[in-house]
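Example A, followed by Example B.
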Amino acid sequence: MVLKEWMPSSDEIGAKPWGLWATLGFSAIILALYSALQILVATGFVSYAKAQHPELDLEVYAKSLSSNGFCIGIMVVVSGLICTPLTLLFAKLHKTISVKNYIGFKEPLKREWVQWLLILAAFLFLSDAVSLLLHQPIVPPFMVDAYKTASSLPVLLFAIVVVAPIFEEIFFRGFLFQGIRYSRLGPIGAIGITSLLWAVIHLQYDIYGMATVFVLGLLFGIARLKTDSIHLLMVMHSFVGLVATLETALYVHPIG
């Protein structure tokens, strides 16, 4: 398989993204802020609950927030809306490459849209089939709990289908991917490392769920190399989130 290479503009010929260590350093800052913002939001939920119900067991309530759909939605929205522009800022600081080419803001060809969305649909079908064969739940318990406890489903849906795909693709398959890709680790290293880190941040799932996220990340990484389009990756990611939400809704509210 021949992997399509990144095509810089004429004034960017010979320029490369940030080096590996600079990329990892900037990425560590982004992930640290991302985590801190989520902790801050969770702390706000705990403080508000305590003010409303002084008798509340804070330890029990705090643990419940890890699967509280409304809290999760707010955490994802807040952290994503702040960390996305920060990621773009770090890319912009590299003066020799435009943010557009650095991150991959490029419209894919029509045949690429069709090809990769069909591949993604096949992957999701096979993933569910494998889960059934291995006696693993198609809908993870975490998703069920998040759906049931989401006092505002639009907020949770906005987080899963819009904010998470935008931030995670710009960061993982955009900024971080490019820094690793043009290092000694190369394209294979970029695919593997970004997929692994992407799986690791999904600690809400069990080992099987994280393994599924890792394999999905490999697919996304290949699509990134073949198309150089973060637009396509955002749509693919959003489609996965939408399918997962619909499957959860059907599980919680079965038809018939």
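Example B, a separate protein, is given below in the same form.
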Amino acid sequence: MNNVQKKYFIGLTHFLGNVLGPKYEVVFHSIDKNKASMEAIANSHVSGRTLSSPLSSFASSMLQEKVYLDKDFIFNYKAVADSDKMIRGSTFFIKNGDKLEGILCINHDTSELVETMSKLISLENLGSFVNVLGIDPALNNSEESEITSKEKLEHSIEEILSEYIDLMSLDTDKNLTLRQKEYSIKVLFDKGIFNIKGAIPIVAKFLKMSVPSVYRHLKLIKNKE
């Protein structure tokens, strides 16, 4: 993606943020050599993230699985921020043929809406009525919404790594065996962690390896794919 295209999507991000309002966080990531960088974020108070925050582990996993080859977008999946807000996420894949050049994400904070509807249902004793109709006021059960996993909107790469490996156990004088290191790198690779810009040196730090060693292990993994 060239600078002109980036400028266009950065402008679109802030436009959508203003039009949709403060309950909608809009985020644009560019993808360069399979590495994602956040270029713009509007209404960042929804998740508390900044431009230095990494691509979420959920989005990294989608990139690793190449979901974008079969879909132009996904929407209405669950997401969660630090405050445990109820968020509905949607992602649009910016593609050039089969090449992914960026993603545009919209995260809707539905916390107040769900709380208000829940109070109304309780106040008017509508619970049985809602159940009969099969309506879940917190969800839009669209056939297009096939993603059932919950996205966590992380603030740092370390936070993402902690979801898959025990960082506390690594922060000791005890060294992992070569096999343990190889296994850790394979797990992180399968989860798409190395699609996040800046992940390799941080992984190397925690695994007590050199950056070139991590690259060598990644090359071996990719050659086996």
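On Example B: Residues 116 and 122 are 10 Å apart (CA to CA).
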